[in-house]
Amino acid sequence: MKKKFCKTNERRPWDVLNCSKSRYLASAPWKQAKMKRREFEALLLEMPDGFTEYVFKEAEAERLVEVVFGKGSLE
């Protein structure tokens, strides 16, 4: 059986989310979004480079502010 190699410049949904393929499949984020897998992956691949990293860093900053200053401090 031949292995299929993907092009090095081809983006994959789990790469966009910065996780492994096995973690991506185990967490099934398309189910949490209540979308079909193909639709969810198409949406992910349309996002500009760096967008998910920005969102993750923003969410992490919000969590840290809540830990340091309390839950209602962002309002």
Keywords:
75 residues; 5 helices; mainly alpha; single chain; elongated
Can you characterise this structure?
The protein is mostly helical. It has one domain (13-74). It is built from five helices and no strands. The protein has helices at 13-16, 21-27, 29-32, 37-46, 51-69. The longest helix has 19 residues, at 51-69. It is elongated, with a radius of gyration of 16 Å. The termini are far apart.
Would you summarize the structure shown here?
The protein is elongated, with a radius of gyration of 16 Å. The chain starts with 12 loop residues before the first helix and ends in a 6-residue tail after the last helix. The relative contact order is 0.10.
Stretches with pLDDT under 50, minimum 5 residues: none
Number of domains: 1
Task: Specify the biggest β-sheet.
Answer: none
> How many DSSP helices?
5
**Gyration radius, rounded:** 16 Å
Order of helices and strands: HHHHH
Mean pLDDT: 87
Which overall shape is indicated by the principal axes computed on the Cα atoms? Answer: elongated
Distance between the termini: 58 Å
Percent helix, as a range, is 55-70%
Structural class: mainly alpha
Total number of beta strands? 0
Write the layout of secondary structure elements.
Elements: H1 13-16, H2 21-27, H3 29-32, H4 37-46, H5 51-69
